[in-house]
Every structure is written in C-alpha cells, then in structure tokens.
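hey so i finaly got around to running the thing on Pleckstrin-like from Huso huso. pasting the sequence first so u can double check i didnt mess up the copy paste, my clipboard has been acting weird all day
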Amino acid sequence: METEPKKIREGYLVKKGTVFNSWKAMWVVLFDDGIEFYKKKTDSSPKGMIPLKGGSISSLCQDFGKRMFVIKLSTGKKQDHFFQAAFLEERDAWIKDIKRAITCLEAGQKFARKSTRKSIRLSETVDLGALYIAMKNQESGVKELKLEKDKRVFNYCFTGSTVIDWLMANNKTRNRQEGLMLATALLNEGYLQPAGDISKKTVESVSDVTLLDQHDALYYFADSGFYCEGYSSDEDVIWKEEFRGTVVKQGCLLKQGHRRKNWKVRKCILRDDPAYMHYYDPTKGEDYALGAIHLRGSVVTAVEHVQDAKKYDIEGNLFEIITSDETHYFLQAATPTERKEWIQAIQSVAKTGK
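ok and heres what it spat out for the 3d tokens, dont ask me to read them lol
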C-alpha cells in the first residue's frame, strides 16, 4: 500500500522560469519525493512538480550577479531548476532538507532530519554556519567598519586580510593559505559578499571564486546592514539612515497594496535603531525598497478579517500595523507561528527603536 508523500517544508521562494527565464515568487512545498510549486498559496493545483529521485542540490550565490541565496536543483534527467531564498538561514534550511530528502529517497528510507548541519563543500569537521555566527559576534567577531574608497563610503564592511587575520587569531586555521581556503568557502557559500570594485571584479571574472587576502578588497556579511554611498546631499544621508539599523527579522509576507488593495508577495526586512520595516519586490533584489514603515510608536495586532481580502483568497494569519501617524498596513504570514513571531519582533522594535 502506497503512503501519501510526507510534507517536509513550505514557504515562499522566487523561482526562475524554465521558458522565459523570468523570476517569480512562488509558494513552494517540499515533499519527501519531490517539490511542488504554486502561483498562489491558496491554489489547489500546482503549477509544476520536480521529482527528487536521482537529483542533486547546490547553492550558486555567485552565478546570477546581484541575486543572492540562489539554490540549484538538478533532476535525474539533467534538468536544472533555480530557486532564490529571502535570506541566508532560509536558503541553508531548504538546502539541508532537500539534500536530506534526496539521500533518504536514494537509500529507500523515510525522511528524517540529522541533528547537526555539515558544510556542503568542506570536510565534515568544518561547520561554516557555526563559523559564520562566531565571525558575526559583536564582541569577539570580525569588526564591521565604515571605510572610504574611490570617493565612496562602504558601511558595515571589512577587508579580505581582516578575515584571514581573524581566522588565524582565533585558531580556526593554522596559516594564511588554509585561512584563504576557508574564507573562500564562506564566500562561495554566500556567507560573505564582495563589496567594492576589486572584490566584485574577481568574483565576476574568475570561474573559481577566491577571496582576496588584500587590504583593499572589501567584503560584508550577507545579512548585515551593509550599504554603499557616494558623497551625496543631506537628504540622501537622511534617507540612508533608515537602513543603518541591525536586521532583526526578514522573510516573505503577503502585503496589501495601499491604492489597488491587491495582495502581493513582498520580502520584508525589519530593522531596529532606527525602527523600520522595508519591503521589496522579492524578484528584484534589495537595491531599491518599494516602501518603508516607520515603526517607532506603532501598534501591531493580529486580525481575523481584512476588507476586500476574500476576493483575493486571503484568509488566516493576518496582522495589522498602525503607525504613529495612523497609517494602516495589512500583511499575511504563512503560518500562525510565523505571524506570532513577526508580531512579537515588530512590537519589540516599535518600543525600543528610535
């Protein structure tokens, strides 16, 4: 007797089209034997299905220019499918579960998660995720600096040499050559990103991406508050102030538009000090925010109904943000747990952020 496929993970990802090569936000569901993707979460039939048997999974953060956190899934018939996660931890979680599902499928076993995460490129003794967390530690990690170069200011970044120095000083590697290999793995896996012309040109022009052990090669943490600015007007400086806060939470939510009242998937990034939530088109990256919600003094609550939401099949897991100037924003999380987490995070930022 055949059993129903086991649902392992689901959520919004941006998928690259197989015919027109356009990127669109999809609701993606991972089962123990395949992946289904839907145009909308509420659709009853999937837009497509990808079998996992004989497949392989890898991350290709450097292969699509400015697109970060891209996952490549190759099927047993050598067809390639590309998905983009909203942030680093989300990408790693999808890769881990897809890889485990493929392994269990090939071995004829039921899906079960392993208790530890291993690097997908280095030996089993190296955990890039744990190393990345250590590097980001505000007390003992790599110091993020404000550096000026070529009439531009790079915020929250560091040099390639600084990375190697830190690895050696913290006994993560025995010499600079080993440190360079480890730092390059962090770059290839998307934990580190190039900033500035020198490091970017190396990533774009060399087939085997290598981190540069140089004082003029700049990099930044993938989910940091990094941004670059030229010598601009006071208005630009004020506008960029919004982006200087620490990222508290990020991910994809459905958001109601202010004018047409339609609902679209938006990548939301919550920052504190200053307290803002910026929202983006998830298919176009983070170079330009579609809008910002100033959260200082705002109120956020769970709601059961939103006017005109039903005609868009929008029901459940809704919440409302009312700003200090009484602007109302309506959003929908994917699950009750996710809604609770967003509400708690926004409430905290609204109280403490400026």
